[in-house]
Amino acid sequence: MIMKKEDINSNPDPRIIAFVCNWCTYSGADLAGTGRMKYSDNVRIIKLPCSGRIDPLFIVEAFKKGARGVLVSGCHPGDCHYTSGNYHSRRKYAAFRDLLGFLGIDLNRVEFSWISASEGNKWVSVVNEFTEKIKSLEDSSTDIFRK
Amino acid sequence: MARIGVFVCWCGSNIAGTVDVAKVAEEASKIPGVVCAVDYKYMCSDPGQNSLRKMIREQKLTGLVLAACSPHMHENTFRRAAVKEGLNPYFVEIANIREQVSWVHEDKERATQKAIDLTKMMVEKVKKDRPIEDVKVPLTKRALVIGGGIAGIQAALDTANGGVQVILVEKEPSIGGRMIQLDETFPTLDCSSCIMTPKMVEVRQHPNIKLYTYSEIEDISGYIGNFKIKIKKKTRSVLEKDCTGCGECWNACPMHKNVKSEFNADMSERTAIYVPFPQAVPLIPVLDRSACLHYKKGGKCQKCFDACGPKCIDFGLRDEIIEEEVGAIIAATGYDLMDNSLYGEYGYGKYKDVVSGLQFERLLSASGPTEGVIRRPSDGKTPQTIVFIQCVGSRDPEKGVPYCSKVCCMYTAKHAKLFAHKVRDSQSYVFYIDIRATGKGYEEFVRSAMEQDGAVYLRGRVSRIYEDNGKLIVKGADTLSGTQVEIAADMVVLATGVIPKKDSDRLARMLGISYDKYGFFTESHPKLRPTESSTAGIFLAGMAQGPRDIPESVVSGSAAASKVLGLFSKSEYEVEGTIANVNEATCVACFYCQRVCAYHAITGKEIKDRNGNIVKVVANVNPGLCTGCGACVSACFSKSIDVKGFMDDQIYAEIKSLGV
Ligand SMILES: Cc1cc2nc3c(=O)[nH]c(=O)nc-3n(C[C@H](O)[C@H](O)[C@H](O)COP(=O)(O)OP(=O)(O)OC[C@H]3O[C@@H](n4cnc5c(N)ncnc54)[C@H](O)[C@@H]3O)c2cc1C
Ligand code: SF4
Ligand code: SF4
């Protein structure tokens, strides 16, 4: 599974996959749409019921299928539609990072954030900033899976 | 074999202006399994839906992908159309190419590519959709109301008047809550007990209300439609059905100087056997065993027993546990007041004539310790000058709480008015930070306290209070004139902040509902679902949710009742079928899923063979509790639990479709 550096060419148009919860971030992204806010078009959203549904293997799979960056976003702790689902995911994220790091994934390419249904502008800035970050990583290094 | 239809919507020019919809349809038609792909001006319109339905029929479609606006807009519209053609509604997926593409991107070629990607992704998802049936949960059409303050009383009466049986559980010996302790109420100054007592009596007499006073919730289990409740009915040591409330017992009780009256906010004493106040509902005394000589002196005193005509005092009675089943719960446990002694500078507890707002209510009340004549606690003299201090504990993140208690500005203005009405030539001063009087008639009410009743409002904080020669010297700042003020007062009244009822967090945990860091119950959505708790079937009312006044408490009580009546208007409760599902063949009963489930939806289920022997235990999902959040799925190492509608294989298929 581990890819070698020379196998991957730096990608000027990197694909970003975003796993977002249905209630907060998905609605936040909808709000950005309703507000006609413009943002980077590299991102593709996969909707989950709750950020608690996220599985570290989804992230690994996304990278395996060619994503250059993965964004995970749920509700703010405290206003999760599912009471405490996002507390679980928050606790899980810490464990995730270790696991992803162990698998050799460059953690700069994984971003966790909290975006509520009212934060269309935050969705835009998170996507834009993350895309910029991934693009600059593409310029400097091509590693997703560290050797 | 899947037969998928793809429908690309133009949304007028909303989508078609930025996305080449014909190209999306063309690309979609090349995906294996797609048998037709079309674009249309407005899919959500009647003709649009008709063309969709026609296509389902003619092409014998097994799944639909709508490349259109957000699923939050029209997913249900298209699902309904599919159902009309005999498809399971969950075989409809939406590729959101408006909010996520045409409205947020400008480059037509790249936007079109993204729209194609999102459409492909949904085609792969819909191929793996399985039919999902919504789950029907039976409903026990009885409601439990916890707390008999004005909010709980209103909720109970409205529910009962709607024809539903109500069980009302109140912790104290009488219902009425804080409101029955108040004298007159802002902003109309109607007498609290005059408007409250009839409601209390109505509760008592209502054929649909079963009242448990002096009782507490011991345990709650179950889920929406099917809660099981254990109620601890503390013993009053009185045979309730025989008691006539005549009062011979409490008049005979020798212990009349030892216990502070809770109802009078510690401003008077009560006997060991007592009713909290003369209009108590029910009018049946409670024998407070911690104060009773009978228990202290080995049975020597039994004066109340001797005095009681119907002989209904029984020193040996015990607490009872009563079990009830209900389908919905309303939590209306109200509030307490903060501890004033946190504010040493105000001298509460040190100087007798520094009292709380609630104590002042009792001094104003005709049923209070002074029969409505304002007398100060130290020497019983009627005060001529009173200083009122607002925001004691409220809006003070350091020592108190950061929130505004909402009722203090108003009740202080009320106190100033009532003081002026009761004591001629008196003078009141009010120290405030801001005046918050936003209800109907409220601003006018505060104005009239100043203009008609002569209250002097000083904007600023009090720094110190000390006693001098029988007067309370109040030192403070008037920030508007920039001067220091010193007032020699006869009494000081603190407008103490409100906090959730003691132990409400414990009750919340028992109910499985969420609460904020102070202990106020939190609503499912602060704006759009203000009466629902985070748990299905449990509703909220009154101050238990946060500071509010009587009108707002009544409104929320009625709102909660209407939610209960709405729920009960159906024969069964229908839950969306997108919930967790256990593969019993592979489940190894590790119950990791149970640990992460915030809704306590997972229990163990025994699998038995034909002879009734337990073969194994597996995880089991309660459809009444499961919300389909999916936290359990990633916790399961043996991959034995999945959430319908968001199955692992579907998400992997979506990821795969995005492969570059
Ligand atoms: C000094 C003062 C003056 C006020 N004056 C006014 C006024 O003039 N006008 C106005 O509109 N508002 C006024 N208010 C506000 C008013 O008191 C509240 O808005 C109102 O009482 C809230 O009603 P409630 O039913 O939510 O809570 P509560 O009145 O607190 O009732 C809650 C009930 O639940 C019971 N309970 C608690 N926990 C449990 C449990 N675990 N199990 C069973 N039962 C339980 C309690 O014993 C109580 O009977 C005043 C408040 C104060 C402090
Ligand atoms: S004396 Fe007996 S009947 Fe009268 S109030 Fe007391 S307990 Fe009830
Ligand atoms: S989906 Fe969520 S609510 Fe349902 S059983 Fe799993 S963790 Fe509990």
Q: Strands, helices and their partners?
A:
The complex is a heterodimer of chains A (147) and B (660).
Chain A: E1 16-21, H1 25-34, E2 43-48, H2 56-64, E3 69-74, H3 85-102, E4 110-114, H4 120-140
Parallel strand pairs in A: 1-2, 1-3, 3-4
Chain B: E1 4-9, H1 13-16, H2 21-29, E2 34-40, H3 46-59, E3 63-68, H4 71-84, E4 92-96, H5 98-102, H6 108-127, E5 135-138, E6 142-146, H7 150-161, E7 165-169, E8 184-185, E9 190-191, H8 192-205, E10 209-212, E11 215-223, E12 226-233, H9 248-252, E13 259-260, E14 269-270, E15 273-274, E16 286-287, H10 293-296, H11 303-307, E17 320-326, E18 328-331, E19 335-337, E20 354-356, H12 357-364, E21 385-392, H13 408-422, E22 427-432, H14 442-451, E23 456-459, E24 462-468, E25 471-478, E26 483-489, E27 491-496, E28 498-500, H15 504-511, E29 538-540, H16 550-568, E30 572-575, E31 580-582, H17 592-596, E32 602-608, E33 614-621, H18 631-635, E34 641-643, H19 648-657
Parallel strand pairs in B: 1-2, 1-3, 3-4, 6-7, 6-18, 7-10, 18-29, 20-27, 21-22, 21-27, 22-23
Antiparallel strand pairs in B: 5-30, 8-9, 11-12, 12-17, 13-14, 15-16, 19-28, 24-25, 25-26, 31-34, 32-33
Helix pairs in contact in B: 2-6, 3-4, 6-19, 7-8, 7-16, 12-13, 13-14
Characterize this entry briefly.
With 147 residues, chain A is of the alpha/beta class. Chain A is built from 4 helices and 4 strands; from the N terminus they run βαβαβαβα. Chain B folds into 5 domains: 4-127, Rossmann fold (3-Layer(aba) Sandwich); 142-234 and 319-334 and 510-568, 3-Layer(bba) Sandwich (FAD/NAD(P)-binding domain); 248-307, no CATH class; 337-499, FAD/NAD(P)-binding domain; 580-644, Alpha-Beta Plaits (2-Layer Sandwich), CATH 3.30.70.
